[in-house]
């Protein structure tokens, strides 16, 4: 994590979006960064990123959000982008159980390439089409508790909870950064205070 000498922002954090191809990572990025949405599906080749500056806990935070390609053949490329990441958003499609089942594979990759203390958030996209839901909430709860990572359900199409998801992981990063400034040994965070915002 790095803080800036410029007055434009207090902290700069790198967030990385990972997950299977087609779960809506690019749509989540566009919704949060540009407040836009497109139904057209185009596979991201390699990596794309956007910036957005937000205010959290009286701090101006500049987020650099990376959208990594989800297809298997790109994984050797995207592994380099985990380095230096402050936060990882692991996305899956609520209407596609296989994308949720693959979260464990993505977690293994994150554990392999990202720093141990990297903040993580599970995000189930496409909450706007509950009639096509294919992921059991009890399975989501079980995984969240097993890996000790909070989870939120969002809709990139309607915008529901997208802001809340990115703000929640940013709040944890800011708290970690502020705690670490006076004393580096205080380098842990508590997720319990965020339990109310996540799927139980």
Instruction: Return Rg in Å.
Output: 16 Å
Q: Give me the count of strands.
A: 7
Low-confidence stretches: 183-200
Q: Structural class of the secondary structure composition? A: alpha/beta
Q: Which architecture name does CATH use?
A: 3-Layer(aba) Sandwich
CATH homologous superfamily label: P-loop containing nucleotide triphosphate hydrolases
CATH class: Alpha Beta
Mean pLDDT: 84
- Kindly report the CATH topology: Rossmann fold
Report, as a whole number of angstroms, the end-to-end distance. Answer: 30 Å
Q: Into which percentage range does the β-strand content fall?
A: 15-25%
Order of helices and strands: EEHEEHEHHEHEH
Largest sheet: 7 strands, mixed
Total individual domains = 1
Shape by Cα distribution? globular
Q: Counting H and I runs of at least 4 residues, what is the number of helices?
A: 6
């Amino acid at each position: 994590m790095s803080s800036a000498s410029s007055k434009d922002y207090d902290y700069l954090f790198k967030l990385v979006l990972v997950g299977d191809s087609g779960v809506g990572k690019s749509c989540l990025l566009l919704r949060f960064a540009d407040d836009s949405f497109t139904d057209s599906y185009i596979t991201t080749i390699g990596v794309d990123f956007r910036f957005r500056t937000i205010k959290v806990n009286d701090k101006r935070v500049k987020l650099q959000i990376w959208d990594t390609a989800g297809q298997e053949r790109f994984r050797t490329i995207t592994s380099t982008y985990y380095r230096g990441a402050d936060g990882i958003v692991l996305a899956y499609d609520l209407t596609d159980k296989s994308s949720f089942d693959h979260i464990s594979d993505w977690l293994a990759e994150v554990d392999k390439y990202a720093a141990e203390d990297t903040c993580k958030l599970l995000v189930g996209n496409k909450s706007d089409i509950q009639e096509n839901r294919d992921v059991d909430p009890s399975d989501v709860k079980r995984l969240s508790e097993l890996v000790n990572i909070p989870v939120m359900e969002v809709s990139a199409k309607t915008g529901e909870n997208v802001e809340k998801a990115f703000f929640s992981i940013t709040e944890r990063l800011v708290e970690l950064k502020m705690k670490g400034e006076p004393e580096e040994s205080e380098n842990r965070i508590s997720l319990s205070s965020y339990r109310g915002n996540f799927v139980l």
